[in-house]
Amino acid sequence: MRVATIVLLALLAVVHAELWFGKGGVPRVMSLRAQVQHQQKLNDQVQAVNEQLVAEVRDLQEGLEMVEEKARTELGMIKPDEIFVQLTTTKQPPASATAGEASAATP
Length: 107
Hints:
With about 110 residues, the protein is mostly helical. It contains 3 helices and no strands.
């Protein structure tokens, strides 16, 4: 019985030593957790930069559409393969104004 107790205590000491000093021991786990936290902080920073870049790209895309619209309406610009058709209306004087002018010219 005494030998069995000593053997079991020796095995317990070996397992306990492996837990504290082995490859997958407590210090290694703590070190890995610290590395994971550091990497998570870096990932959060990079994610913020990526979101900012996505917002800038979106603004540039929408901005180009706005620039194109202003160029078309205000400057009359067209794309190379487009056909531009402009309709104009001619103002005709009212019928009473033309009759008044005709009667004023005849006296």
